Amino acid sequence: MKQDMILILDLGSKENAKIAREVRALGVYSEIHPHDITLAEVQALPNVKGIILNGGPNRVVDGVEIDVSKEIYNCELPVLMADHKGDAPWPEDDEARKQALSNFIFGGGGAEANWNMDNFIADQIELIRRQVGDKKVLLALSGGVDSSVVAALLIKAIGKQLTCVHVNHGLLRKGEPEQVIQVFRHEMDANLIYVDAVDRFLAGVADPEQKRKIIGGEFIRVFEEEAWKLEGISFLGQGTIYPDIIESGTKTVKAVKSHHNVGGLPEDLDFELVEPLKMLFKDEVRACGKALGLPDNMVYRQPFPGPGLGVRCLGAITRDRLEAVRESDAILREEFAKNGLEGKVWQYFTAIPDIKSVGVRDGKRADEWPVIIRAVNTVDAMTATVEDVPFALLQHITHRITHEVPGVNRVLYDLTPKPTGTIEWE
Fold this sequence. Notes:
Blueprint: E1 5-11, H1 16-25, E2 29-34, H2 39-44, E3 48-55, E4 60-61, E5 64-65, H3 70-73, E6 79-81, H4 94-108, H5 117-132, E7 136-140, H6 145-158, E8 162-168, H7 176-187, E9 192-196, H8 208-229, E10 233-237, H9 242-247, E11 272-274, H10 282-291, H11 296-299, H12 319-338, E12 347-351, E13 357-361, E14 364-377, E15 385-386, H13 391-404, E16 408-413
Parallel strand pairs: 1-2, 1-3, 3-6, 7-8, 7-10, 8-9, 10-11, 14-16
Antiparallel strand pairs: 4-5, 12-14, 13-14, 14-15
Helix pairs in contact: 5-6, 5-10, 6-10, 12-13
């Protein structure tokens, strides 16, 4: 590994990701590890230059005080207490924090600012080749940013040892299956298998966590079936990124939500996973895609959850409500593109809850669904702000959705930032 590394040991703080990003912003690679990591495990990691202890209030989790081992405190690596357990209070001001981190990393730790995408890509190519050898990899290719960057990285590392599988689970946005086939099979000349599995994913389950796990598990089953038709498939490639792992929970921080490629994987998985982006934040994934030469319209494509529209058809998935989500989302995307918001807003979509409200249709009472519009901006997907969409445009979108999408009589705009909300509703 070409990059120096700073370890952040998780002692219950909600700022682990923030500190990790602050370290990376200084040009040094960082990773978050559990508080009970052993010194031997630390020494087995490459190029560790320092350890940051990042605790929550009094380092108490579920009523129990936690700490790292004495051997970590007494090791030869410099240790920074990034909370209030040390001799001096940890600075709250951003500039003071930056200076404190810089002094520790480059002074006490003696690290070099060598965290960049060229080095990351070179490291990952070496690691992928070492992991895969002469075997073959099956990649879950949704066509989104994460899986597209993984595909480009795997192609660079192992070439024709990669087979991409695009599963149409019926939960994609309007026109997406056709677009994926066009871009990856015809323009990128990828070895692409298209699987129509629409009927397998429409389970009548309402609980969001169960839905994610069912969709994730069914994805794996589809890939297993495709692998059985091929020879020598030993690995499953995935576009897992760092926020997926962090939000799925740690030993000291409870899960925000399970991600289909983290919490939804079955225990009897027959593949070894290849996840070269799992330590990158979303903006870093895009930077990696640019460094790999992917076109802007792919690198800056709007994020889309792994379970697709299944987590935007809130509650139990039904075909008619799913189609209403798909059509209302298409209208929203069309209007944002026409009005110059396509590249300005990070993510925007519609969701439909499993409730109805009374309205008027053709002069008669009509019980129909509401559509919720969500439009947010973020850098790393860990926090998000709400886009201030012009009211006149919201009125126009409302008119289109209520007149063009069957079964919808109301449109609502979600004004909640993250936190307290998450980006998705489920």
